Amino acid sequence: MIFSAGLGTRFKPWTDKHPKALALVNGKSLLQRNIEYLQRYGIKDVIVNVHHFADQIIDAVNKNKGWGSNILISDETNEVLETGGGLLKAKDLFTPGEKFITCNVDILTDLDLYKLLLFHELHRPMVSFAVSNRKTSRYLLFDKNNRLCGWRNNKTQEEKIPLYKPGLVEKAYSCIVVFEYGVFDLMKKKGMSGKFSLIDFYLKAAAEHTILGYDHTGDRLVDVGKPESIAIAESLFS
User: Fold this and answer.
1) pTM assigned to the model
2) E strands, the chain, where?
3) What is the CA radius of gyration of the chain?
4) Cβ contacts of 57 within 8 Å, gap of 6 or more
5) How are beta strands 45-50 and 2-3 bridged, if at all?
6) Which terminus of the chain faces fewer neighbouring Cβ atoms within 10 Å, N or C?
């Protein structure tokens, strides 16, 4: 699933008239780049959620015949649900019992998905996601075994640590995630519904369920969150 429903408020003025998903990097939209990224790992069945200028995304998918992939649309036109709520809404579009991957349309990376999947298969957590040692304001906190224990905002000093252990290590979330299908039942057990972020869900589940971070420090990664990020992305991704 590629999360593409955001309002893109940091990406104005483009997002005054277009969805961020269709912003171009060296002539290809962020959406096309993520679809082609997944294709490199044999993933051609893709869910795309839409809200902001949803019709433009749907038109682009249809016009380009999914860029060679089978695209299903999860329509959030009535209310943007953030990543967690958007994932839960799309539940019926996934194959029951099968693990799946999610990514954010505004993240470009050359992370090797095969390595992330191998890590997930080896350790068998409920959730595995990519993290790295890069500078940000908000960090996830991990123990020595890469298990998620908490979250910290270094600007406000706010912390949420549902699983306390000494010597927790800060790592930045890369928004590439492997989920077991059972995550949907777990969301409901934790009372998650409507609009919520995946980070909120991770922190509610972390104390009782194993959630692991896979460190891919050294891989290229650009958060194309602001217009000035386009130049950086274009220098790294041809």
Assistant:
1) 0.96
2) 2-3, 24-25, 28-29, 45-50, 70-75, 100-104, 107-109, 127-132, 138-142, 148-153, 158-160, 169-179, 211-215, 221-223
3) 17
4) 4, 19, 21, 22, 31, 48, 50, 73
5) parallel
6) C
Placement of tokens 């961020």 in the chain: 20
| φ, ψ at 193 (rounded to 5°) | -160, 165
Output the six-digit token pair for 28. 């290809």
The domains found in the chain, sorted by start residue, are: 1-106 (3.90.550.10), 111-174+189-219 (no CATH)
Within 8 A by CB and 6+ apart from 10, the residues are 225, 226
Q: Please provide the average confidence, as pLDDT, over all residues in the chain.
A: 97
Q: Buried (b) or exposed (e) across 218-235, using 16+ Cβ within 10 A?
A: eeebbbbbeeebbeebee
Categorize the per-residue pLDDT at 145 as very low, low, confident or very high, splitting at 50, 70 and 90. very high
Whole-angstrom distance, CA of residue 127 vs CA of residue 175? 12
